[in-house]
Design brief:
heterodimer; A: alpha+beta; Aldehyde Oxidoreductase, domain 4; 5-stranded mixed sheet; globular; B: alpha+beta; Uridine Diphospho-n-acetylenolpyruvylglucosamine Reductase, domain 2; Enolase-like, domain 1; 5-stranded antiparallel sheet; 4-stranded antiparallel sheet; 11 helices; binds flavin-adenine dinucleotide
């Protein structure tokens, strides 16, 4: 193994600056002559704005401007675009409401932007914002899926009857119905997938800056994908061509999906900076994040699984309602459809599947991708249902899974819901997890818990996910309005150090380390001689950013392809220097050698001669050593795994504590095991958070009750056990690295494992159902009801 | 936050003068409650009077039959005080379970009881241990101190100086925390004091209160079983996202039983 190359647990390069507080986040950046923005947001969930009086705010000393939706309309600012269109069952397109960055005359959720107050300090802007007077004519509110789908429900959008954005389906309905006709056993389940708020450590922030001399704009923003923001904001909202707009996403402190989307504040700051000819900065306060960052999940589903006498799955029928919020966030419609229903085959060979999904509007914050995005919802529904099915079939939960798994010899496996899995070994992951979790001795641990008055339960999930959405043409046919490739440039500098420009964006994933490992592996250059540049459209040629566990599987592969071009050219240069044929040159450990001889030249010398081409094949080769590759994957990658959770429940209070958690995941080949393990720990913690702690709650009037960290419960260190994690590798078959992606797996596999464990612990009461999050009161109430 | 003036007086007298001179002035102790309120613009003091430079206000001392704790003693000071731990371990434990490490390192006893958050922990100890609250003007008995939600017997211009906690024969505190904030959803302290068995409940109602039925039952027989037949009426209890009134009523008994069991009952 190359030192610090593929497979080495190298310590993270970026941690020095993060740990010493020298990271540069958007809010750390201050531009000359900068002013500060504060956004006036709606305190009500649905209202016409009868009157908006900004005069007192404008008159406040220090206030530079107060801008409203009317100013935006006058400047013909466009609507925030939706990046994925969904078609209804009848082929007609979904309903797409307009989404002005500053509300025109109606607000649709608490937190909707109404005006921006810009002043010479944050404090002045905030003081003046209180003087903006808004006269609201309140309209009826639908604050959740049940309210939105009730008969005669009020409408969020008059042109979307029944509050339906789309009514979509996938799979073969007739074949699935036929499977149910044949079935001798049927299991069914109703699940609510709780609404979540990502709460990245760093709140969102944006600085717009306009250079009137060059007529150029720069936007600094907390984004997971600056090129996508440049495209969406430039082309659809503000009408600025790419060459006049630079988007910089510097250090970003966590995203979990919530920083993928193009947000109103980015457009507002960029637009205002031109109006004022001054840089304009905005940073969200935590309470503001709660009502302006896109939320996640929020589904209600009914599902049925048809089986034969042996517990073999024959057909699966799923009906889901998904809350999209008041407006369509950038990728909102894709999450409950193509990222959810296509995963319903799970790890099983269910021959017929049919799913229908209704996307619905409510007077709440828009809902979009959050760690896992659609796949946790699918995995939760399916893995809970399979546990139910085990009971119906009288089988052990592990046995029913084994019987129905897609077997190693079945790959590539075409599911009935569009995806084709390339590879996997689900049984092997189960074996590893069973062993690592000491599954066989569960009974003795259960007895020990009982002696302490605790109920112990064990639960399993065998999830699958699809990462690195691709290929672009297929995604495009399904409604994606962007490409899904990635770009990478390798710039070998004259003295042999390497600068990598990647379209992937790191906001916690450690790319500066793992991508440098790929370079070290390919070129043999010292790990410390590699610099990874990302997050700046002015430096990086192009990119689609980081989400959906795509960085290694798409961005990493683009980089490796560019490295391969470098290797090829380096061999040609070396062949010239060594007076040999390029075919005879071997490139290993940073040395280029004529095979079978001791004639050799170092990679550094090759680099130097590429830039000082005195002894160089100028008629055959261009000078310089820099290559770019764009990589569009042939397929998704399909990480999968087995998670086993053990909980202890205090029957007197209903408190659930996760006491053991084991994850055996197949991420394909692993670049840096330490970083992967860290990603798994984070994902599991968020998955446990969804299962037991986190819950976004609105009241009937659309007020967010869980609007601060005092009430929205993020998991804390003492809520999770020491995790036992391991990997089981089946390399991805369609990318050169063999990697699959690891960022979301924990959040996908954990929730059903936890709830299956809770239900298992409560089996003695005959309890078979448990809402998430399984809060102490819910668990206690369930026990009371069963008694 | 609105603008305010900041003062850091070196004596109690000076603090009182500043407070007297500015009608909208407010004391700041640890700021763990006051600052968030100001950030949310729910409070708008003209002046903040920081008590942290006043000598001796954070003293913890053994006064023979009682432990005296200064208003500015931080929760962490109380939690780590040998004096407190050896005489009233339940009080040290209580302080050690408040919020998180940052809150314990800033928040103070005086601030906590002046604020009287219904979910605060100290009020349970004040009532169960029959403490005396010493202010710059008088002494207030525990039973006269808590009046309602965020409402105490303190006058507007009155400052908590110290609290005197009589040493109990035994005492234990059991807390069921809010998973998000770590405040008490229900906290119960059971103590055997010179004036008999006292059971104080925090978190459940508008302010901390004594559970007289529990006290009577435990006076008859100090055992967990004795609590089997008593219950608390949920009508006046708090209800929120995390716990309904009925669940809180149930938790009061569970926590009381745990405290009693911890005392060997
Ligand atoms: C995340 C978090 C978790 C928490 N968890 C808990 C918990 O589990 N249990 C718990 O009990 N508390 C908890 N708290 C509250 C914490 O204990 C506070 O510190 C305490 O309630 C207030 O103390 P303070 O010193 O910070 O007061 P400050 O915030 O400075 O002041 C609070 C109020 O008291 C007044 N005041 C302060 N000192 C005096 C005085 N000597 N005389 C008269 N008036 C005075 C102030 O004017 C103000 O009105 C939590 C707080 C936070 C932020």
């Amino acid at each position: 193994m190359t030192k610090n190359g593929m497979g080495a647990s190298v310590r993270r390069k970026e941690d020095y600056r993060f740990i010493t507080g020298s990271g540069q986040y958007t809010d750390d950046i201050n531009r000359p002559n900068q002013v500060y923005a504060y956004i006036v947001r709606s305190p009500v969930a649905h209202a016409h704005i009868r009157d908006l009086d900004i005069s007192a705010a404008v008159a406040t000393p220090g206030v530079v401007a107060v801008l409203t939706g009317a100013d935006m309309a006058a400047d013909e600012v466009g609507s925030l675009p939706c990046g994925w269109g969904i078609n209804n069952k009848d082929g007609s397109p979904m309903f797409e409401p307009g989404h002005p960055p500053l509300a025109a005359d109606t607000v649709h959720h608490v937190g909707d932007q109404i005006a921006v107050v810009i002043a010479t300090s944050r404090a002045i802007a905030k003081d003046a914002a209180e003087l903006v007077e808004v006269d609201y004519d309140e309209l009826p509110v639908v604050a959740g899926l049940e309210a939105a789908s009730a008969d005669g429900a009020a409408l969020v959008w008059p042109d979307a009857p029944g509050n339906v954005c789309f009514d979509w389906e996938i799979g073969d309905k007739a074949a699935t119905d036929a499977a149910f006709e044949q079935a001798t056993r049927v299991a069914s389940i109703d699940v609510v997938n709780n609404r979540l708020i990502a709460n990245a450590m760093e709140p969102r922030s944006a600085i717009g800056e306009y250079d009137s001399g060059k007529d150029e704009y720069t936007l600094y923003t907390t984004s997971q994908n600056p090129h996508v923001i440049r495209l969406l904001m430039g082309a659809f909202v503000l009408g600025i061509p790419e060459h006049k707009l630079r988007v910089i996403a510097p250090d970003v402190g966590g995203g979990f999906g919530s920083k993928i989307f193009h947000y109103a504040e980015e457009a507002i700051m960029t637009w205002a900076s031109r109006k004022l000819k001054r840089p304009v900065k905005w940073t969200a306060e935590r309470s503001e994040s709660f009502i302006s960052d896109a939320h996640g999940r929020d589904h209600i589903s009914h599902a049925e699984l048809a089986m034969d006498d042996d517990g073999m799955f024959l057909g699966l029928r799923v009906s889901t309602r998904a809350n999209l919020g008041a407006y369509l966030s950038t990728f909102g419609p894709s999450v409950p459809t193509y990222l959810h229903a296509t995963l319903l085959a799970g790890t099983y060979k269910t021959p017929a599947i049919y799913a229908e999904v209704k996307g619905m509007f409510t007077n709440t914050v828009p809902v979009d991708a959050y760690r896992g995005a659609g796949r946790p919802e699918a995995s939760y529904l399916l893995e809970r249902l399979v546990d139910r099915a085990a009971k119906v079939a009288g089988l052990d939960p592990i046995e029913i899974r084994r019987r129905n798994f897609i077997k190693p010899e079945d790959f590539p496996y075409q599911t009935p819901v569009a995806l084709e899995y390339d590879t996997g070994d689900y049984e092997a992951a189960v074996e590893k997890a069973l062993e690592l979790s000491d599954y066989d001795n569960f009974e003795s641990r259960k007895n020990a818990s009982a002696e302490r008055g605790k109920l112990r339960g064990i639960g399993i999930s065998t999830y699958i996910e699809a990462c690195g959405i691709a290929p672009s043409n297929v995604a495009g046919a399904l409604g994606a309005r962007a490409g899904l490739y990635e770009a990478g440039t390798v710039r070998v500098n004259p003295t042999g150090s390497v600068t990598v420009l990647t379209g992937s964006h790191s906001h916690g994933q450690g790319h500066e380390t793992t991508f440098a490992q790929l370079v070290t592996e390919a070129l043999g250059v010292d790990f410390d001689a590699v610099e990874i540049v990302h997050g700046d459209t002015g430096k990086v040629p192009f990119g689609m950013g980081t989400y959906g566990s795509r960085s290694a599987a798409v961005g990493g592969v683009a980089l490796v392809n560019a490295l391969e071009k470098i290797r090829t050219k380096a061999k040609k240069i070396a062949a010239h220097l060594l007076e040999a044929s390029a075919d005879d040159v071997e490139f290993k450990d940073g040395q280029l050698t004529v095979v079978g001889t001791d004639r050799s030249v170092g990679f550094g010398d090759v680099a130097m001669s590429a830039y000082v081409p005195h002894n160089y094949p100028l008629d055959e080769l261009e000078p310089g050593l820099e290559e770019t590759a764009f990589y569009d994957p042939k397929n998704f990658t399909f990480p999968a795994g087995c998670h086993i959770c053990e909980v202890e429940i205090d029957p007197d209070t209903g408190v659930v504590q996760v006491v053991r958690f084991t994850a055996a995941d197949d991420f394909g080949r692993v670049i840096n095991p330490m970083i992967v393990e860290g990603q798994v720990h984070g994902g599991l913690t968020q998955g446990i958070g969804q299962a037991l702690y986190e819950n976004c709650v609105y009241d009937e009037s659309g007020q967010l009750l869980s609007g601060s960290l005092m009430d929205y419960c993020l998991p804390k260190a003492d809520n999770v056990p020491d995790f036992a994690v391991t990997t089981n590798v089946t390399p991805c078959t369609h990318n050169v690295l063999g990697v699959k992606g690891c960022g979301e797996a924990g959040a996908i596999g954990a929730p059903p494992a936890v709830i299956n464990a809770v239900v298992n612990a409560l089996a003695e009461f005959g309890i078979d159902d448990m809402p998430i999050p399984a809060t102490p009161e819910r668990v206690w109430q369930a026990i009371q009801a069963a008694k | 936050m609105y603008e305010f003036n900041y003062h850091r007086p070196a004596s109690l007298d000076e603090a009182k003068q500043i407070l007297a001179a500015n009608a909208e002035a407010k004391i700041i102790a640890g700021g763990m409650t006051l600052l968030p309120t100001m950030k949310l613009r729910l409070a708008q003091p003209s002046d903040l009077v920081d008590l942290s430079a006043i000598d001796g206000l954070d003293a913890i001392s053994d006064a023979g039959s009682a432990i005296d704790i200064g208003a500015m003693a931080r929760h962490a000071d109380v939690a780590h005080s040998e004096v407190v731990r050896s005489a009233i371990p339940a009080l040290a434990d209580l302080a050690d379970a408040i919020g998180d490490a940052q809150v314990r390192n800033r928040g103070t006893l005086g601030g906590s009881i002046a604020n009287s958050d219904p979910a605060a922990d100290y009020p349970a100890a004040i009532l169960a241990l029959n403490a005396t609250i010493r202010t710059d003007q008088r002494e207030i008995a525990a039973d006269d101190y808590f009046l309602g939600m965020f409402e105490t017997a303190l006058a507007d211009d009155e400052l908590v100086v110290a609290v005197s906690f009589p040493k109990p024969k035994k005492a234990a505190y059991a807390k069921f925390h809010n998973p998000a904030s770590r405040y008490a959803i229900v906290g119960v302290m059971v103590a055997e004091t010179d004036s008999g068995i006292r059971v104080a409940v925090t978190g459940a109602g508008a302010c901390a209160f004594r559970a007289s039925d529990f006290e009577a039952a435990l006076t008859e027989s100090f055992s967990a079983d004795a609590l089997g037949s008593v219950s608390i009426d949920s009508d006046d209890l708090n209800s929120d996202l995390h716990a309904s009134a009925g669940y809180r009523a149930h938790l009061v008994r569970v926590m009381a039983v745990r405290a009693v069991k911890a005392l060997g009952g």
